Amino acid sequence: VHISLLCYCLTALCLVEGSEVTQTPTILWELKDSDAQMNCSHTKGATYTQMYWYRQLPGEGMKQVVYTSSYSDPEYGDFSKDKYPTVKAVAESGSFTVKKLETGDSGMYFCAVSQHSDTDNKYSCTQTPVFQQDVT
């Protein structure tokens, strides 16, 4: 069995009070064509309804994939809701999925939460590295 791994790790620099925001799993390894689901939760209370998901691919800057809140539809901008579905039913938690993993999906994925929808004023964020693995 030959296994080739595409790996990328990065230390997040955006943790303000990271113990109040939890992203699971902390590292995610999945096979090509499978789905990678991440969960984010916080203990800041019900007024922190905004959640943002970012991705950072190797050699690139961080890009916002989607903005979600517990009271409105997700906003994707340049990204596809079919590729990156989200669930956010309550203020304190949400999930983000990368569907049908491809080689180019390996990277770091970040969750950030905010009390307001001002994208320059995140309270805290955390991260999950995702690795797509080919088994041949």
Automatic annotation (TrEMBL):
Extent of the signal sequence: 1-18
Coiled-coil features, chain-numbered ranges: none
GO BP, sorted A to Z: cell surface receptor signaling pathway; immune system process
Residues annotated as domain Ig-like: 1-124
Keyword Signal belongs to the record: yes
Keywords: Immunity, Signal
Pfam families the record matches: V-set (PF07686)
Highest taxon above the source species: Eukaryota
GO cellular component, as recorded: plasma membrane
PANTHER family: IMMUNOGLOBULIN V-SET DOMAIN-CONTAINING PROTEIN, T-CELL RECEPTOR BETA CHAIN
Listed name of the protein: Ig-like domain-containing protein
Organism: Oncorhynchus mykiss (Rainbow trout)
